[in-house]
Amino acid sequence: MSDVAPDPTVQICAGDPEAGPVREVIDATTVRLGEHTDVRRLLPRLGRRMVGAWCFVDTYGPDDIADEPGMQVAPHPHTGLQTVSWLVDGEVHHRDSVGSDQVVRAGELGLMTAGSGIAHSEQSPDPHSPLLQGAQLWVALPEAERNIAPRFEHHTDLPVVTDRGLSATVLLGEFAGAVSPGRTHSPLAGVDVSVARGADVLLPLQRDWEYAVLTVSGHPDVADGELDPGALLYLGCGRDEVRLRAGSDHDRLLLIGGAPFDEKIVMFWNFIGRSSREIESFREQWQAEIAGAASGSAGPGPAGPLAAAGSGTPRFGAVPGYEGDPLPSPELPAAGRLRPRGRVERRRS
Questions:
Q1: Which tens digits make up the pLDDT trace of 298-339?
Q2: Coil, strand or helix: which one is 279?
Q3: Which of 148, 160, 191, 324, CA to CA, is 20 to 30 A from 231?
């Protein structure tokens, strides 16, 4: 999924795990995705940029798309991250520049590792289900592995933990001894948790990780407070468990967490890098690639020390099977705005 805002702000991912256990509710802001879908953005936010390595959270739906095109996101690039596609209702057709062509359905994991660079598109297939609801999350890759070769994984058989009215699907990482088949590059967890009315359970956590929960449906009581649908509750670090009590017939939430991410990074549009020069180079190469495609040239973007592995090879590449133009990158911000910062730093005005 892309951040398609025409004039995106510079996003600096930063958390504050030293704060210990907290209970901080974060409300969403609405962002237009493509031509037909509105999403609710919960991360990054000023003052709360990351939860472990999770640095981006969008949710959407439930949307009635029975007579609509549904999700229509043209090819766009990514670097230095993993995208985690998780659907509650409906399906999305994923295509990418490494040749993946896969419809991802509700309850299935679509995991794309951008690494050194990839381009992909996302569309509701035709025909498609009448409802569309889900979440798109990004995970920042650590320095040692951020330039690995790009890949896409599709997993339909995910581990499920059950206990006293609770059902927890582990979509990524590890939870309560269950491990997702999706490949990770830092210690983290992503879990889809459902609880039936009357359930009162303790979710096991790791004390040295930071966590947050996102309400998908219902009004669950988490850490002694009720949450509205669509809200993100940041829980901080220093917890061995968190209490979850059902407030309706079917409460559902996403639990995300991980070891605090200690590296300094810069996130602009769909790129994650470590310096202003890197981000500028990513943008230049993407713009050159789409300009070459528009002119009918098969030539790659500008090469150099920051080009993808393999001299003369385009960093991102084309998305086979997509009919239409790719998304151009927004303009870069004013000089000096792209600065790498750590997880405990705050954005300067």
A1: 444 333 334 444 446 899 999 999 999 999 999 998 876 787
A2: helix
A3: 160
DSSP three-state, residue 325: coil
- The H or E element containing residue 314 is none
DSSP letter, residue 8: P
Query: Which residue matches tokens 């390595």?
Result: 53
Transcribe 59-113 into DSSP letters: EEEEEE-TTS---EEEEEEEBSEEEEEEEEESEEEEEETTS-EEEEETT-EEEEE
Which tokens in the block code for residue 239? 């917890």
Q: Which two tokens stand for residue 3?
A: 């951040």
The per-residue pLDDT for range 184-238, each reduced to its tens digit, is: 999 999 999 999 999 999 999 999 999 999 999 999 999 999 998 888 999 999 9
Nearest CA-CA partner of 9 in 266, 232, 326: 266
Q: Is the dihedral of CA 284, 287, 293, 297 positive or negative?
A: negative
281: nearest Cα among 255, 249, 253, 308: 308
Query: What is the rounded distance in angstroms from the CA atom of residue 319 to the CA atom of residue 154?
Result: 18
In the three-class reduction of DSSP (H, G, I as helix; E, B as strand; rest coil), residue 158 is classed as coil
Q: In angstroms, what is the C-alpha Rg of the chain?
A: 20
Burial pattern 219-255, b for ≥16 Cβ within 10 A else e, equals ebbbbeeebebebbbbbbbbbeebebebbeeebbbbb
Question: Do 52 and 209 form a contact (C-beta atoms < 8 A)?
Answer: yes
213 and 239 Cβ atoms separated by less than 8 Å: no
The span from the CA of 136 to the CA of 229, in Å, is: 16
* Complete edge-to-edge strand list for the sheet that includes strand 221-222: 200-204, 241-245, 221-222
In whole angstroms, what is the distance from residue 110 CA to residue 162 CA?
A: 23
Instruction: Enter the DSSP assignment of 115.
Output: T
